[in-house]
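Box S2. Input/output pair 1.
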Amino acid sequence: MSNKFSLAIFDLDGTLADTSQLIFDSFNFVMRKYKSIEMAPSQIMSYFGPPEEIAIKNILGSDNFDSIWRDYLGYYEDHLNETEVFAGIPELLRALRKTGSHLAIFTGKGNNTTELTLKHHGIRDLFDVIVTGSIVKNHKPSPEGVELALSTLRVEPAMAVLVGDSLSDYRAATSAGIHFIAAMYDSLAKNRFDDVNCVKANSIRELSALLLPQHAHLD
């Protein structure tokens, strides 16, 4: 794999930021309040693909949705201080920009929680294009979001890479004909790629070596 790309596309949850527990807690907060139920992380993840608002409707129905969604966003925003960007990610993103690479996000999160997360952690302005689950018609593993980033930034697939922690990220990348790197430094990703022949980064240092030209360095 070349270590120089014109475009690096990143998933958000589990790739740029360690936010998984907050997502599970936010879902369970509204489920307890409105239906007196809780779900294990694996059950909640089974609803992933569409953005959170659709997943919540699929679980709780559409009645009182405005109140449910307001409570979800309130809980999520109030507890963002319990999350963190993976150590080394901001430095990697800035180093990539210095090399002239475009940066994009393709996430299944909706617009609201994506903006809250990126602004809270101070990395919103590092990205040229942000494609959320609210924007695309066909969600991951569809390549629609990847193709939108490619066309917006006028980058050929061979010069682009997607970094993600899920099989849906991998399938979106391969369907779009771009490179893929599995973000293995998130604990939830550890066993997802056991049977997948792809490039894997077990740390941000390994990811940096795969993405940055040899002469580049982290600040």
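Box S3. Input/output pair 2.
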Amino acid sequence: MDLSALAGQLKTQFPLPEPPPLSVDSKSSAVLVVLYTRYRQPHVLLIRRAEHLNRHAGEISFPGGFYEAGDASLLDTALRETREELDLNIPASQIIGLLPEVQTLTGITISPFVTILDSLPAFQKNPEEVQDVLEIPLLPLLSTHHREMGYPIEKNMVAYWYLQNRVWGATAKILHQIGKTAS
């Protein structure tokens, strides 16, 4: 998979609206999907949330979180949360698209913004929010796609595996959208 080709497909299928959307409520959140090249292979940046957090403790996710009153848009939410969690400062000008919103089983609406970088800049995880940072080769991850058992088929629940790490829920739904775009 060539990231420049994927970037073109994402820009065409899921362009970033101007201005970024701001229809928010108390359950609005945003994440940043960071795709980049490492060892000449596309990679995706995921985090394992800290075990002591009240919500989704220990789960694997994209950097992101809930909209706050000081955020000018959901894009600002994704960028702010990425800075807070990873000290990773991605300029808004490097955001190439907005994937379809994802609804969690708990009623949270997630807006997934996408950036594709030539390489991953230096970062520093915030141990208050992030237990681990996972730099995962994208194609091997996408190849582990399977339907998540135990949920009604109409929920369209999928999951992925990276080593011993199960990627599921909203994160898996976002990865599934990327996989469909790339194929």
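Caption for Box S3: The chain is about 25% helix and 30% strand. The chain has a mean pLDDT of 89.
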